[in-house]
Amino acid sequence: MNGFACKASFSASDFFFAGLATPQPTNNTMGSYVTLANVMLIPGLNTLGVSIARIDYAPGGIRTPHTHPRATEIFFVLQGELDVGFITTAEVLVPMTLKQGDVFIFPKGLVHFQINNGKGPAAAIAVFNSQNPSVQDIPPTLFTATPQVPNSVLSKAFQISYQEVDAISNYVKTVMSSSSHRSTIQYRQPTFENKTCWCGLRAALHISESSENPGRLFYRCPKDSKDKEICGYWKWCYQIGCHEPNPRVAPEVKALNNDARVEVIEVTVANLKHMLIVCQFLSGLALVVAIIALLK
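^ that's the sequence the OP posted. Answer follows.
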């Protein structure tokens, strides 16, 4: 069977994924983060033979040498400048410096890498001709395999001593065990909570196209905007589990990231401005009523 067994029933959500819209944090060991959208996350890709990923890079961030056993990769630079390359079976390095808008191909199964040598962040989109391309990172594959690759093999392959093999293995295992590195080399995806609108329906997740908040995710009532029964539910979606900010509870505010805190402050200020306008209006109305009463 090519792929998984087909589902008995399906919905539009099986063909939808919003996880590539927002840059992910790159404050980890390697300074990069991969967000993969494959058949595991988009069931509608089953048997279609395609998938896609977003990679974010901090300045100096690297996507370590790795291979995709089941797919060729088309690599498109969204932002910044990246030095990339792959190694042929004849052990020839094929390097290239890519800028925003450039496209590069990493042939199926060949070891390749990307590094951000620029001063600013970078991002790229990778498209694969497999619904589940898989990934094999070279350093952990060699030095953290279970059972362990024999020291005699690694010592002979790299022409180093057994002690040096042990030192490298221990170091790689230490780095691999850190949560900061795991988020770099593994394909992770943002998790989005299911929200229920005031109609009692599952809220729809959308991408903002406004000039003030381009690319931000938000929830709203799934009913058509022209529907008279639409409840008007609307909430920002935050990448840290999509937690909704509560400006009245200090601990929750402290738990949010900087963007969420800014949003809390913006919401609070907007509410205060609205309250001030209402108070001013009521005060003015009361003054007018008082003056009319005096004139009578």
